[in-house]
Amino acid sequence: MTERKPNKSVKSEGGESAQAQESPVPTGLYVGTSGWAYKAWQPAFFPEKLPQKKFLHYYASQLPAVEVNYTFRRLLTEKMIDNWLVDVPESFRFTLKANQWITHFRRLRDADESVQRFLSAITPLANARRLGPVLFQLPPTMKVDLEALEHVLSILPRALRSAWEFRHKSWFTDETYRVLEKYSAALCSVDREEGMDPLAPTAPFNYFRFRRESYNVEQKEQLVKLVQEQLSSGREVYAFFKHEESPDSALNAVEFLNRFRGNDRTRVAITA
Questions:
Q1: How many folded domains does the chain comprise?
Q2: Which domain holds residue 240?
Q3: What is the pLDDT of residues 129-166, one digit of tens each?
Q4: 3-state helix/strand/coil string of the chain
Q5: What CATH number does the domain containing 116 carry?
């Protein structure tokens, strides 16, 4: 398996690059959190005196991807994207949640105009090669509608990777998986307190959301094994821990990523 070189731009208090101290991350593994701009993560994750405008730059030195919820409610602007690009390395990926007009207000029907507005807004990020998959998270009350699903998939650019989080059990059928596979779209598997959603190989990548309030050692080991199995099968993996008003999600993500570096520890530089 080839390896991606770590970013070396952020330095510890001693002046040595924090990332340079780590082993490389396997190519195709993108681990992060849902969001990054949380002051509550200081000082356990972000250094205590780090200004908030530098949070993304620091975050990107620790983790290779982030899931952005902002796009669920608002469209990105070119200025916002330009500011992001300055702070992240070429290997970093932003995964974006599809806008609510597509998934919740239109519920995938008569959504062509909303889809095109959303795609237009994210084009600069795609052109910069920093765009990861787009997550389409459907409402919990939305039952299976394969016709609507296939129509939206059919109007997405073939180069755009999409992942689909279904929150009504009627979607988890072989028929749904066949539609996703036809368009190389991923089934998003969510790990909640009640257990993990089904896993189906419908795309050349997997998309996981780890949403439990906390993970014990055994549960962490199960997640590591699950992701390693997908990497070994040749799939890329995107995996995101939930955001919360504590640094646990970021620390869990770093610890998780370190397991794939052969480095089972949370970096000292995190609390520097």
A1: 1
A2: 3-271
A3: 999 999 999 999 999 999 999 999 999 999 999 999 99
A4: CCEECCCCCCECCCCCECHHHCCCEECCEEEEEECCCCHHHCCCCCCCCCCHHHHHHHHHHHCCEEEECHHHHCCCCHHHHHHHHHHCCCCCEEEEECCHHHHHHCCCCCCHHHHHHHHHHHHHHHHCCCEEEEEEECCCCCCCCHHHHHHHHHHCCCCCCEEEECCCHHHCCHHHHHHHHHCCCEEEEEEECCEECCCCCCCCEEEEEECCCCCCHHHHHHHHHHHHHHHHCCCEEEEEECCCCCCHHHHHHHHHHHHCCCCCCCCHHHHC
A5: 3.20.20.410
